[in-house]
Design brief:
alpha/beta, two-stranded antiparallel ribbon, 468 residues, Rossmann fold, seven-stranded mixed β-sheet, 15 helices
């Protein structure tokens, strides 16, 4: 036990010291040795992006070290506060552990839209979800969260379409203007009792890379509805576009998601249950989440609606923000200080100009953020590289890692953070090299091919044949 205590003390000293890559040889080796001693971590030199690492089930003192989420507390009597009834005034700094767990839960729902997206340009299902909705959470290890996927959402991609999809080898069978962009889910009975109501969730996917998003951003406003409400044209186009020539967007993403929401609201309110709507998204998905919340609040005025977004851009003008507030939509924006996406559009002409209200009056043409902000600093984590890495700072897994480690603006990274650090490098290379976790390690095994009963490698047959 003395040895363990000494190791923990030394580890805390190392983690409290910022890692500078000009002098990481001794510090990095010390960090790796201490981590190895503490959790019996066995590292193997990566080969061809494959790696092996394992945690022992228990330390010498019997403490389990397997990666796990924070404990599931019964929040049934506090769910309205956790979802913003008081605008999270007393819950963000320090970050309440119940709120932290809920933020991570919704973030993992969004991460599923990346992990299950079909990137294979040789596949006739390129741009579609790899799994059918009945298997999605099971395949991605999300069944523990207690939700059931009820509907997939597809969006038009005139602006969002990545270059690799434009170059698809199967352009004829796959509509290049339409791809999977999110889903609707609902809490099961057990989770509903824990969280105090039947929670409907909508998760929206962002673009494949932030560079594509920045390249395609139009930065032009479009008026919606009556009055002075304006939103960014590109976001609104993706949310509302439809075309009879597409396989999956004969109806717009807006029509699809609202149909799914209203069906569930009707189903559970008729049973006498309390129902809420939580909309979540990352990057472009955060923008779509706000547009979705605006429409849902106008259509279902008595429904409690909250938005939990990650790395979201500005979406609309002051009138858009004010209307969301009037409709009692609660919005919590999680942003990383080093991420530039939350700073656009309106890099110069944004809500900061409202400080000059006496001179300018209400500005109808400037972009403004909505709701409360949880601001994170990538440099607070001892596990992350501190060099300039735009895609890494914007990565949703980086966000979830920082949320899990955040306690307050005056505290160090949480020593009892429970989320697996290796997840940070699923698609990026943000972890310090001393941890020896290869970047971009998350790959679909065998490109999705399966070995069937007759010994041939074939594409698996999906059970769902309907577009929605």
């Amino acid at each position: 036990m003395k040895a363990l205590s000494s190791t923990v003390h030394n580890l805390e000293e190392v983690l409290a010291t910022p890692i500078h890559y000009q002098k990481t040889a001794s510090c990095g080796a010390r960090l790796a040795d201490l981590l190895s001693n503490l959790v019996h971590l066995h590292l193997q030199t990566p080969s061809h992006k494959k790696f092996t690492y394992s945690y022992s089930n228990y330390l010498d003192c019997g403490v389990p070290m397997s990666p796990m989420t924070s404990p599931k507390e019964d929040i049934s009597k506090k769910w309205r506060e956790i979802h913003g009834s008081c605008n999270w005034n007393t819950l963000l700094n320090p970050l309440h552990p119940w709120l932290r767990r809920e933020i991570v839960k919704y973030g993992e729902f969004v991460q599923a839209t990346y992990d299950a997206f079909n990137f294979d340009s040789f596949s006739e299902n390129c741009g579609r979800c790899i799994y059918n909705r009945h298997d999605l959470f099971d395949k991605l290890g999300l069944k523990k969260n207690g939700y059931i996927v009820t509907k997939y959402i597809y969006g038009m991609s005139h602006i969002d379409m990545p270059g690799w999809l434009k170059m698809s080898h199967l352009a004829d069978p796959w509509s290049k203007d339409s791809n999977w962009i999110g889903y609707v889910a609902v809490s099961n009975d057990t989770e509903s009792r824990r969280i105090g109501r039947r929670d409907i969730v909508v998760a929206w996917r962002g673009t494949v890379t932030p560079s594509e998003w920045l390249e395609d951003l139009q930065d032009k406003m479009e008026k919606i509805g009556d009055g002075n409400v304006k939103v960014e044209r590109g976001f609104y186009s993706i949310y509302t576009s439809k075309s009879e020539s597409t396989r999956y967007n004969k109806s717009s993403a807006s029509d699809q998601v609202m149909k799914g929401i209203t069906r569930l609201v009707s189903l559970y309110t008729q049973k006498g249950e309390e129902v809420s709507l939580t909309i979540t998204g990352h990057s472009l998905g955060a923008a779509l989440a706000l547009l979705n919340a605006y429409e849902a609040a106008a259509s279902l005025p008595d429904l409690p609606i909250s938005v939990i977004s990650f790395g979201g851009p500005r979406v609309g003008n002051v009138a858009f923000r004010d209307n969301l507030h009037k409709m009692r939509v609660k919005t919590l924006r999680v942003v990383v200080k080093q991420d530039i996406v939350p700073k656009v559009p309106g890099l110069l002409f944004n809500e900061g100009l409202q400080k000059l209200y006496q001179i300018t009056g209400t500005l109808k043409w400037v972009y403004t953020h909505v709701g409360a902000e949880l601001k994170l600093d990538a440099h607070a984590s001892p596990y992350l590289k501190h060099g300039f890495n735009l895609p890494g700072f914007h990565s949703l897994e980086t966000y979830l890692h920082l949320v899990d480690g955040f306690h307050s603006t005056t505290s160090k990274f949480r020593s009892d953070a429970r989320r697996d650090i290796a997840l940070v490098n699923k698609a990026r290379g943000m972890l310090v090299d001393e941890l020896r976790i290869p970047k971009g390690w998350y790959k679909l095994a065998k490109k999705g091919l399966v070995h069937h009963a007759y010994g041939r490698w074939v594409k698996p047959i999906r059970r769902d044949s309907k577009p929605y």
